[in-house]
Amino acid sequence: MTDHEPPRSRSRRKQDVLARLEHDEDLWVATASADGEPCLVPLSFVWDTTGDSRARDGHFAANTGADADADTGSGTGTGTGTSTHAGAGTETGTAPDRGTVLLCTRRTNPTARNLTPGGRVRLSLGHTRDVVLVDGTAEVVEGHRLPTASADAFAAKLAWDPRDGPAWVYLRVTPRTMKAWREENELAERELMRDGVWLV
Questions:
Q1: Helix (H) or strand (E) holding 89
Q2: Residue 196: CB partners within 8 Å, gap ≥ 6?
């Protein structure tokens, strides 16, 4: 019989989720096409808490996505691990728990096609014994429309700056629900966010 650690409180889980969003560099992105064809790929990301990340400037993203059927893009594999999520600890940033997930992939990849001009997406961080699930809405943002602070944060964390590359588009995901658990004893209070509002 396996002994498990005591379940974490919701407050502790929220802290752990925010730490993972800040420090992790890659996550899984699940989308579906209009006819229901699923697509699951890894992408690099930044947890963007810059003040203008939620303004969406008229629009509502390293691993660039080995997208299912035809990805000719190359993952950068050059993340620096600088752990600088956008706006953290700055006067211009929002609170660290009020952010969006910023991804980038080739505009021709299934993930981008599935989310153009926008759509539902599920993100997953961590392994099967330390799960973070994020359901959200995503919108495609062209590089020239992405706020400078957001693009700078993406480039700084991942050592890759695709904002001027015509083959690439950013995807900004606004979380709607978040769940986190490790073992069966944490299932009861795994929901941390509902309808875009933290429950703790």
A1: none
A2: 174, 175, 176
**Per-position b or e across 86-99, b if 16+ CB within 10 A of its CB:** bbbeeeebbebbeb
Helix (H, G, I), strand (E, B) or coil at 143: helix
Q: Where are the alpha helices (DSSP H) in the chain?
A: 10-23, 110-114, 148-158
pLDDT digit string, tens, across residues 25-84: 999 999 999 999 999 999 999 999 996 555 444 333 356 554 544 443 333 333 333 444
Q: Is 42:66 a contact under the CB 8 Å cutoff?
A: yes
CA dist., res. 172 & res. 134, Å (int)? 13
Q: Name every residue whose Cβ is closer than 8 Å to that of residue 166 and which is 6 or more positions away in sequence.
A: none
Report pTM.
0.81
